[in-house]
Design a protein that fits this description.
Elements (H helix, E strand, L loop, with lengths): L1 H20 L4 E5 L5 E3 H14 L5 E6 L5 E3 L6 E9 L10 E9 L7 E9 L3 E7 L5 E6 L2 E7 L8 E4 L8 H12 L3 E2 L5 H10 L3 E5 L12 H14 L3 E3 L20 E4 L1 H11 L2
Parallel strand pairs: 3-5, 11-12, 11-13
Antiparallel strand pairs: 1-2, 3-4, 5-6, 6-7, 7-8, 8-9, 9-10, 13-15, 14-15
Helix pairs in contact: 1-2, 3-6
This protein binds 2,5-anhydro-1,6-di-O-phosphono-D-glucitol.
Length: 281
């Protein structure tokens, strides 16, 4: 599996270069969820596919930007599901964005998820790699290489609150709960890019990131295979929790379609237990 992580480091440098130097306009196409694709989305997707083509252990790939599963190496072991450039609409205002990778063996669901990784493209390039059963490891690109910074461990209680979705579309239960955290002293930290927002909560010790079921998106917005499951593994491995709105672990998710979404909540133990109480689950 380490060759996959080496290739992700290579990908991170190439996509960072594309972000800094490429045209920011829209392409002529839309992705499988009907969203307009930026040229950068298409370019990032191509960079990943080209790089993974030279990694024999990768049997197949599934991209957030494409419809189905593409087989790369019949005798490979892993299927890598990825969001090439999450939050790409933030590039034109120069906010941080990211790439997310879920590495699956046998089944494309929480049980089959054996590792995950994400890259943050910000003032620096950061990388977090998480193998199942181990703590997530934080790397930072400096001096021409990815230097290991250390393991990530969440505190039992944090201070940050990152509430996704449009407030007018929240349920009263969700609105009351988010308000209660602010009344407790939590600080709002939400950029609209899940990678930097979740990364900030992880590195600042804890808090809550939520993307609930809303009246316009009853199944949430974030995609299970490319976004929700990879971060669920990182949060649970860091000592936090990751649940859906029924109180079940997100790692129990079994998508029936590769682009399925789910309401999702990631946080330290205190905030997730409080959320379960508020939701009555
Ligand atoms: P996109 O890649 O289309 O910009 O979407 C970003 C995702 C995710 O990164 C972020 O947390 C969420 O959408 C933000 O959605 P809201 O604006 O609805 O909160």
């Amino acid at each position: 599996m380490d060759t996959i992580f080496d290739s992700i480091k290579d990908i991170a440098l190439k996509i960072d270069n594309a972000i800094k130097n490429s045209d920011l306009g829209y392409s002529q196409s839309s992705n499988s969820s009907g969203e307009d694709q930026l040229k950068l989305d298409v370019q990032s997707d191509l960079i990943i596919e080209q790089t993974f083509k030279s990694v024999p252990s990768i049997k197949a790939i599934v991209s957030e930007e494409k419809e189905g599963i593409s087989v790369l190496h019949e005798n490979g072991t892993y299927t890598v599901c990825y969001d090439p450039l999450d939050g790409s609409s933030l590039v034109d205002v120069d906010l941080s964005v990211g790439s997310i990778f879920g590495i699956y063996e046998d089944t494309l669901d929480g049980d089959g998820l054996v590792a995950s990784a994400y890259v943050v493209y910000g003032p620096r390039i950061e990388l977090v790699i998480c193998k199942r059963g181990k703590k997530p490891i934080h790397y930072r690109y400096m001096g021409g290489q990815f230097a290991q910074i250390g393991e990530i461990t969440l505190n039992d209680k944090g201070k940050l609150n990152a509430p996704g979705g449009t407030q007018q579309n929240w349920t009263p239960i969700h609105k009351n709960f988010i308000d209660s955290l602010f009344k407790e002293g939590y600080r709002l930290r939400y950029s609209g890019g899940m990678v930097p927002d979740l990364h900030q909560i992880l590195l600042k010790g804890g808090g809550l990131f939520s993307y609930p079921a809303t009246s316009d998106k009853p199944n949430g917005k974030l995609r299970q295979l490319f976004e929700v499951l990879p971060f669920a593994l990182v949060y649970e491995s860091a000592g936090g929790m990751a649940i859906d709105d029924k109180g079940g672990s997100l790692l129990s998710l079994k998508p029936s379609f590769v682009h399925d979404t789910s309401p999702c909540f990631f946080g330290s133990r205190y905030e997730i237990e409080a959320l379960k109480k508020a939701y009555g689950v």
